[in-house]
Amino acid sequence: MSEYELPSxxxxxxxxxxKRLTKQYSNCNQLENLLEKFLGxxxxxxxxxxxFKEQLNEEEKNLFFQQTLPFMQQCALLMPKLFxxxxxxxxxxxxxxxxxxxxxxxxxxxxxxxxxxxxxxKPEMKYWCTFEPWITCNGYKPVISYFHSLFNYFYRCSKLxxxxxxxxxxxxxxxxxxxxxxxxExKDNxxxxxKxNxxxxxExxxxxxExKxNxxxxxxxxxxxxxxxxxxxVIKPEEQPSWLTxxxxxxxxxxxETGIIGKNNEQIQVEFANxxxxxxxxGTQEEIVFGMNIELCISMLICDTMKSNEAILIQNSWVTGVxxxxxxxxxxxxQPKIDPNNKNRMICAIDALELEYFEDYRIxxxxxxxxxxxxxxxxxxxxxxxxxxxxxxxxxxxxGCGAFGGxxxxxxxxxxxxxSQCQASKINYxxxxxxxxxxxxxxxxxxxxxxxxxxxxQLWVLLRKFHELFKNNHQNxxxxxxLIEKKLL
Length: 489
Known about the structure:
Layout (H helix, E strand, L loop, with lengths): L2 E3 L5 H11 L6 H12 L6 H9 L3 H19 L2 H4 L4 E3 L7 E6 H13 L16 H5 L4 H18 L12 H18 L4 H33 L1 E8 L18 E4 L11 E6 L11 H7 L7 H4 L7 E6 L6 E3 L6 E4 L11 E6 L8 H8 L2 H15 L8 E4 L11 H14 L4 E5 L4 H16 L5 H16 L7 H6 L5
Parallel strand pairs: 5-12, 6-10, 6-11, 11-12
Antiparallel strand pairs: 1-2, 3-4, 4-7, 7-10, 8-9
Helix pairs in contact: 2-3, 4-6, 4-8, 9-10, 14-15, 15-17
Keywords: Hydrolase
EC number: 3.2.1.143
Organism: Anaeramoeba flamelloides
């Protein structure tokens, strides 16, 4: 189905939502009761209680219940005005298309995801479409961090006038009226010029203050009406590169020892996705990216499963959390400032092959099969080159090398080839303090330079050679090892 029906379309359901969201909730117990009514099936909002009782002080609780939560309720109730058709379009499989939302619309949808008023649309949706997994879990550390990110996002939105539907400021008319008024006053009060001059000065200062305030309001209005773009990129078979014959040159690659992907504001930032993208309760790279970029979470409402020749890209989403750690040790540090250069940032969601778990050599042999190498090359190429974008920086790392069983060295070369084929300007490869990997990769890059290995097709040939050698009793040698030992040259 190409559209998702919002709860405002069902009059009976919407009246029930309105009734509950127009009430005032002043403490954690009341909020838990509200959420449990929407959750149904005797589900408990356990993590909400844990979060408010263990993570927030009294001042922070008061701020949430006096400002943030009332804003969330009001924003959720704007749904019929923000979505007059009571539906949103979906990015269906096999079709290259994009959908844009204003930040105000996204905020409204996220409020409903928190209140758990949205329903899973089967069979298109395989998983959840609200924050129920966070709300009902047992207070896992990553989820606590994601709640910090979510509630800080709502607090930021509450200060940006997101509850106004239309805001029309006409400064020229205001200033013109004031100038006419000043002229009339000068004519009628010639004898009181000194007093009038003082008034004029006061009015000028007042006007300047009003102008500053109006500029601030205009900026806020622009923020709520900024567009966030969700795109499904599809590469048809005839559009896939010929990796064997590609004469495109290898681009510069920079190995970054520490830090998170995207810390250098690269335009394409790779998200190590599942084929059904979304958030969860643990601390995988994908779950962290969604938890610290909250606006991405509405992807679960609009994105069908990715096929082998597809990628999903999200442009201009806000970063809502700075964090440290990984897995169960993810920890929210702070909410970042809004980056004015964020408009060109794209989160690139691509899913790697999920390899079967055999002995190590069987995993490597499986991913070296020609069909699997081509799958990964074309998947990365699809994500790295949306709309024929060129001369852009790509930020990535050990894609598909965790639970999916990918080999770091093979995946690094595949992504290097794909980024070069896309004619990116540079690839920043985040190594997550893997010093052994960095040392070997640096040696390999020096060998490429010394041996004039500078074309995409040359790396394809090396991968095929490695496959042949690997099958012939080189199962204890990695790809980089054989390159360093000159056995592939």
